[in-house]
Amino acid sequence: MLDVTSTSQRLAVTNIQHLTSNFISKIEKRTVTKKRINMKVQVITIGDEILIGQIVDTNSAWMGQQLNDAGFDIENIMTVGDEEMAIKQALDDAFSQSDIVLMTGGLGPTKDDITKKTLADYFGVEMVFSESTFNRIQRMFKKWKKSPTEAHRLQCYMPANATLLYNEMGTAPGMWFEHNGKVVVSMPGVPYEMQYLMTEEVIPKLSVNFTAKPVIHRTIQTIGEGETRIASRIESVTDTLPDYVKVAFLPSLGKVRVRLSTTGNNKKELQQLLDEKVKEIAALIPEFVYGYGDDKLEEVIGKILVQQGKALTVAESCTGGYISHRITANPGSSAYFDGSIVPYSNAIKVKQLNVNPDTLKEHGAVSKATVIEMVKGVLDLLQSDIAVAISGIAGPGGGTQEKPVGTIWLAAGDQDRVVTRKLNLGKKRLQNIEYTANQALNMVRQFLLKEI
User: Fold this and answer.
1) Which of 42, 154, 236, 415 could pair covalently with 94 via S-S, beta carbons 3.0-4.6 A apart?
2) What confidence tens digit (pLDDT) does each residue in 255-304 have?
3) Percent composition of the chain: helix, strand, coil (DSSP 3-state, to 5)
4) Does domain 215-292 have CATH number 3.40.50.150?
């Protein structure tokens, strides 16, 4: 045993013990941080505008997908208004269930943005001015040849315990808090700002602090049949899946995504298993499968057109340009899309597409005969290889006993052959337009592949 006889010696030993204790404490803290495996996440979206339906909360859906891909599970999503007690109660509830809380909203320069002040009160810290944030805002406004307002200066006051996350897309930085072993991240509610912070700052930092198991998904994109019939057709595969592989059927308007999911440590082996099962499922429903993963129907059609060296044109009446919008939203679509016309009136159908007036008089604009002539007319007008035409009654009014609302005719073809299809839909206009667009695009795909 060390015999400490002098005051100086006792102080030296005390200092060594104190330093050693701090060093060990830091090592233990780091070790605990590396081993944190509670990967459940709570999401809190803040804003009266969400609660009253002025805007739709798309942030939570996007965050859920990104977190899941990174191996984190969302335990719960809460939406609260711009009210201090509601935000604090949401934090209490979130902390009782998870170690990670992600918040969006309420970080702007206006008086209704109260998230920062509420977080400072919640953690019992002061608000401090961030000179670096204000300097960055000044540089941004100088580039725009404007001056920041006093509200922008006030926006630079942050909770004293916040680690600021650089936000290249806006004026408000994200804020990272660690409190009693929990992590809280507050981000702006503007989607593109939140997405930048999640991608560049939040998920990388979470991955350092938490150990995540890989979550693996495989998705089969189908169109032309409902989820019940798809499920029945593939049950010989899905009924024999291992317990650790889950299957989900995700329907939308005319389409169904079949998703296989699993998690585990042997990523390569699990990927191989899911790939095999995807092939088995696709072999059972080949006529309905148009893609995999995040494939969009219009992107798939574009690739087929490029492979075949062909160009598409569209004549769309009741869909009002929606199909053309979907096609041209894809980069590179000029390589396979010549253009479109929206012949909404009968006069334009006659004048621009050479639809015979007698055809309109005898059969009406919403008819098999009319859409066939629309296909031929737009092919001649724009000199394309293949065309699709749509005419219908999207609703909610305008129907007759003979042709009720939701009656829609489609045609797709080239100079040699035209195929048609009749849809009998409901009275919801926007749903009818989207469903029709899906069916029209699928007709083009099937025509190109000689499936119809």
Assistant:
1) 42
2) 999 999 998 888 899 999 999 999 999 999 999 999 999 999 999 999 99
3) 45, 20, 35
4) no
